[in-house]
Design brief:
The complex is a heterodimer of chains A (801) and B (218). Chain A is of the alpha+beta class. Helices cover 63% and strands 12% of the residues of chain A. Chain A has an eight-stranded mixed β-sheet with strand order 6-5-7-4-3-9-1-10, sandwiched between helices. In chain A, strands 13, 14, 15, 16, 17, 18 and 19 form a seven-stranded mixed β-sheet that branches. In chain A, strand 3 and strand 4 form a beta hairpin. Chain A is elongated, with a radius of gyration of 33 Å. Chain A starts with a helix and ends in a 7-residue tail after the last helix. Chain B has seven helices and ten strands. Chain B has 218 residues and is α/β, with parallel strands linked by helices. Chain B has helices at 45-52, 74-84, 101-112, 117-126, 142-155, 172-189, 200-203, and strands spanning 3-14, 17-29, 34-38, 60-65, 68-69, 86-89, 160-164, 192-196, 208-213, 216-217. In chain B, helix 3 (101-112) packs parallel to helix 5 (142-155), helix 4 packs antiparallel against helix 5 (142-155) and helix 5 (142-155) runs parallel beside helix 6 (172-189). Chain B is globular, with a radius of gyration of 17 Å. The chains are: A alpha+beta (801), B alpha/beta (218). At the A-B interface, helix 16, helix 24, helix 25 and helix 27 of A face helix 2 and helix 3 of B.
Chain lengths: 801, 218
């Protein structure tokens, strides 16, 4: 009984302060929304990876030829010798945005538990196998393929996005791989005795295609990045919640005292308060999940484009609602409320029955906490420093980042307090002295919002610096890497040879771009062959090299490796690398290779063709005057019938690369803005709640001769000044964050290090944006103050109040 | 004549229509004169003081200071008037919590552009606050806080000091000491005084006594 009465009395507080209730719900909902939105994106992407991996092989091992294809005759001889293997062919069909990965399987031998086999058998084998056959794809993928010259495409919800399945014969025809196979799936049931693989098909090796793990490894850093942002937004949201809960508890101290004096046990009061918080958490959690879904749905197309563009991972831009995600959202809302309300609940539980009711204590008590905050900040900064020196791995890098951000947030109020104290001491007029001293006094009430603003601004500066540095470096790197004016893919090796002869006869330089996929140190990678030409000698983005690097490569004595492989393998010029075939080669140089998570080795064309005779010789770069590139492409089409989509000029390729790059950071940018928005709301809510407690402080100043309009202008100025101070403090934090992202996290996540560039123009813009946001947040309370009836101010002095 | 209050009327909204608080109140105060305003709770004493200070507008009538109607001054003019010519002491002290004792005492004088360090230091000494000048209001007792409020009101040497039950929150001994100080300092500065009080005994210390009952002066 006393519980329900107590709860009723507690809840009555929100009836008279609906705005405060709104603040609490909104803060918690926003925190939950940003967190669960990011989790939804991650869950969706991971589900796509899992779906994609079981398409044709399941978890079975496969037979492959490193850097080449398998002849159909080798398959036949293996089967005749008793090897239970099933052939698979894979490649890309469609063009541009409708590019889809096609898997061709043999319905008769394919393992029955894979997605591919299920489809092959589901709708009658004959239709699948006989010409023109049919393709199976998810509805979105099927829609993407509409308009392509393909057999009929059947849509099915159960298929992974971005892939299509067909009978092997149809797929071979569509991919131009007649008589060739990509790999052979080794089935579980094998005869007791089999002839050795080396005798039947020399050059084939057994490997495990562990797609899910590969994709997860590739994309882990991307998801970690998103998760870190989600967590940052969640933390910023919690600042609002903590402020709202703290204020409500302090405002109700007299009520707590009365309830205790009237006989309500401390335990009942605490339980009633906890129930109240739980109700808020459930309400805000539901709202947050809905908001999170909307955010995720809005961002997913960009995330999908990023994953496709950066990693080639098939993820569709549609969101599925998963019950686990709903539950996690509610859980995080409750956890957030518990975190934000724990201190207040603890204090209430330990409150003496006749504790003094001092509503302003909430705003005043902060000064005593300043020293503790400063000490904690120093400790965390030291921890971040120690992690820089001693830590390794992504988790350590993110721990360092977290320690730095929390240290900076904790250090802000003591620093601001000190600065305001100095300003107050230097003030020349009574008004300015009061302004600075009063601003310092408001600090405890505003510090949570300012800490949130600091985090949002620092994240913005850090991520902005990283993205802009990346963009600048990437553009320069593209200029170096894409030196040829025209890039051509021929349809066959013979066509490639004929085209080369034709172009060379016209006095043009043709640069082969031939490569094989190979396992490099046990991980997927690519080996390229490059011609000995000034194009590479003058332009290739080497970051470290031994003398005569190009001569050594041209002579077949050495190789170049990309930065990520060098870092992963701790390789330097002078080290050696082992190729799947032939003797190890000396590392002559290391080059930057952005946007590629895999190892890459560059050798001379002769070395490549000697060690991998089966390499496809179909891609070329042509050096031709930029303005003649399109005309030459047309002539090539006329002479050889090579379709225009097989030729790309340098400008288009750069444009496409930059486009992929920009989309990659769209999500980061959107989360950045959302976090800044949440910080803006934190300031607004703090100012508005403080405004309700300000009258006793402002009324005496008004009474002794400052007009309400003047006081309102000073209130607005206070918000602007605090935002400006916070923006200034955020700059070094943001730059340190950028350094961690560029020099530590990027290296750990992607294997490359980017040079850090500074963009003062962006800082000024962001600073002005922060001041504008604070100005807008401060405007409402200021207008309310300017329009406040004198009677409301007078009430402060009234004996009868 | 420094203060001339003419036929002042003021009412506040109530559930059953406006509730009259001041009903044709008229009074005058000369320079250097001290007047006590007594009356029961709710008789309108504080409201009269607030209207005289320009903190609240009157419904009817006029408040003239040196012959100038404060209603015609506008918000900015009334703020200037309070800054430069009036000193106000409230029952609840209403000090500025973010400023120390010295800065609180000097505050209004500095706003009015009449700051004299020697006067502030003398006031601090006379008010017995010399040892507390660097403390903040929350570190002081009630009596000390009220002395700071009196110091603030008098530091700018105002023409008229308005005191609203300045001892209402103090015990009798402390209250007597504070009132004694206030009267002495006001007299020394030639400042007129209008003081609201419940206490007939304290009222007896002033030059003249007015009694407000049911919104009318007697």
């Amino acid at each position: 009984m006393s519980y329900s009465i107590t709860l009723g009395a507690l809840l009555s507080h929100w009836r008279v302060r609906p705005f405060q209730a709104l603040t609490l719900v909104l803060g918690l909902a926003l925190a939950t929304a940003l967190w669960s939105g990011v989790q939804a994106l991650n869950a969706e992407a991971r589900a796509s990876y899992a779906q994609a991996t079981s398409v044709v092989t399941g978890t079975r091992p496969v037979l492959v030829r490193e850097g080449g294809v398998i002849d159909e005759r080798e398959y036949v001889s293996l089967r005749r010798a008793g090897w239970q293997v099933s052939p698979v062919v894979e490649g890309w069909i469609g063009s541009g945005r409708s590019r889809v990965k096609l898997f061709g399987i043999d319905a008769l031998t394919a393992p029955r538990d894979t997605q591919a086999a299920t489809f092959a058998f589901s709708d009658g084998m004959a239709g699948t196998m006989l010409s023109p056959g049919r393709l199976f794809a998810s509805p979105v993928t099927a829609a993407r393929l509409a308009g392509e010259e393909l057999p009929p495409v059947h849509a099915s919800d159960a298929l992974a996005p971005g892939i299509a399945i067909a009978d092997i014969g149809i797929a071979q025809r569509l991919l131009g791989m007649e008589g060739q196979l990509s790999h052979l799936v080794i089935l579980e049931t094998q005869p007791m005795v089999r002839p050795p693989l080396a005798d039947l098909a020399p050059g084939l090796t057994q490997r495990k295609i562990d797609g899910a793990e590969d994709l997860a490894r590739l994309t882990d850093s991307f998801h970690l990045n998103l998760t870190a942002f989600g967590f940052l937004s969640f933390a910023v949201g919690l600042f609002i919640v903590n402020g709202a809960i703290g204020l409500a508890f302090e405002q109700r101290r007299p009520l707590f005292r009365t309830l205790r004096a009237l006989g309500v046990p401390g335990r009942t009061l605490t339980i009633a308060l906890a129930s109240e918080l739980l109700a808020f958490a459930l309400l805000a959690g539901c709202l947050g999940i809905v908001l999170g879904y909307l955010i995720a749905a809005a961002l997913l197309p960009d995330v999908a484009a990023t994953l496709r563009g950066l990693y080639g991972v098939p993820v569709e831009g549609t969101l599925t609602i998963r019950p686990a995600w709903w539950a996690a959202g509610l859980l995080i809302a409750m956890l957030g409320t518990a975190l934000a309300g724990a201190a207040a609940l603890w204090k209430t539980a330990r409150l003496p029955v006749l504790a003094p009711a001092r509503p302003r204590a909430w705003a005043m008590a902060g000064h005593t906490a300043e020293r503790a905050q400063a000490i904690a900040a120093l400790g965390l900064a030291a921890l971040a420093g120690a992690l820089v020196l001693l830590g390794s791995g992504l988790v350590a890098a993110f721990a360092m980042l977290g320690a730095l951000l929390i240290a900076a947030a904790l250090a802000l109020p003591p620093l601001l307090s000190r600065a305001l104290q100095l300003f107050a001491r230097g003030a020349k007029t009574a008004e300015s002295e009061w302004f600075w001293a009063d601003t310092r006094q408001q600090l405890p009430g505003l510090s949570l919002a300012l800490m949130a603003l600091l985090l949002a601004l620092a994240a913005n500066i850090g991520v902005g610096t990283m993205v802009s540095s990346f963009r600048l470096t990437f553009a320069g790197w593209l200029d170096q890497r894409l030196a040829s004016e025209l890039y051509i893919s021929t349809r066959t090796d013979a066509e490639g040879a004929a085209l080369t002869a034709w172009l060379e006869a016209r006095g043009l330089t043709v640069l082969p771009i031939w490569n094989v996929d190979a396992s490099i140190d046990g991980a997927p990678g690519t080996i390229y062959g490059v011609a000995d030409h000034a194009t590479y000698r003058d332009n290739w983005p080497l970051i470290d090299a031994s003398p005569d690097v190009w001569d050594k490569v041209a002579a077949g004595e050495a190789a170049l490796i990309n930065e990520q492989y060098a870092r992963r393998g701790a390789l330097r010029p002078g080290s050696t690398v082992t190729l799947p075939v032939g003797d190890p080669l000396e590392v002559a140089g290391i080059y930057s290779d952005y946007g590629n998570p895999e190892a890459q080795i560059l050798v001379s064309v002769a070395t490549l063709t000697e060690r991998f005779p089966g390499v496809e010789r179909q891609r070329f770069g042509v050096r031709v005057a930029q303005e003649d590139a399109n005309a030459l492409a047309k002539e090539i089409t006329d002479a050889f019938g090579i379709p225009p989509e097989n030729m790309t000029d340098q400008a288009s390729l750069k444009r496409f690369s930059i486009e992929v790059f920009e989309r990659t950071f769209t999500v980061t940018g959107a989360l950045n803005i959302l976090t800044l928005g949440v910080a803006g709301i934190a300031i607004l809510t703090s100012l508005l709640t403080l405004a309700t407690m300000r009258l006793p402080q402002l009324a005496p100043v008004w009474a002794v001769g400052l007009t309400r309009a003047r006081l309102a202008r000073l209130e607005l100025l206070r918000a602007l000044v605090l935002a400006a101070f916070t923006a200034i403090a955020a700059l070094p934090v943001g730059l340190t964050l950028a350094w961690i992202l560029l020099a530590v996290i990027n290296v750990e996540a992607f294997g490359w290090r980017l040079p850090m560039h500074l963009f003062p123009g962006d800082w000024i813009k962001l600073g002005l944006l922060a001041i504008l946001a604070a100005g807008l947040a401060g405007l409402w309370p200021a207008i309310k103050l300017a329009r406040l009836a004198p009677a409301d101010l007078v009430r402060v002095f009234s004996n009868e109040r | 004549m420094l203060l001339d209050v003419r036929s002042l009327k003021k009412s506040f909204p109530g559930d059953d229509g406006p509730v009259p608080v001041l009903d044709s109140v008229s009074l005058t105060i000369d320079s250097g004169e001290s007047v006590a305003l007594t009356g029961e709770s709710g008789s309108g004493k504080s409201t009269l003081l607030h209207v005289v200070a320009g903190l609240e507008p009157a419904d009817e009538g006029a408040v003239l200071i040196d012959g100038t109607d404060i209603a015609a001054m506008g918000d900015v003019g009334r703020a200037r008037l309070r800054r430069t010519r009036l000193g106000i002491v409230f029952q609840q002290f209403n000090l500025i919590p973010s400023l120390d004792v010295r800065a609180n005492v000097a505050f209004q004088a500095r706003l009015a552009g009449r700051y004299e360090q020697s006067r502030v230091e003398t006031l601090l000494y006379d008010l017995g606050l010399g040892d507390h000048a660097s403390k903040y209001p929350e570190q002081l007792s009630g009596g000390q806080q009220q002395r700071v409020a009196i110091g603030r009101a008098l530091a700018g040497a105002p023409d008229l000091l308005l005191a609203d039950e300045p001892t209402g929150n103090l015990d009798e001994t402390t209250g007597d000491a504070v009132i004694g100080l206030m009267l002495d300092l006001a007299k020394d500065a030639g400042t007129s005084l209008l003081m609201v009080t419940h206490s007939e005994r304290l009222a007896g210390h002033l030059d003249r006594r007015l009694h407000l009952s049911l919104g009318r002066l007697h």
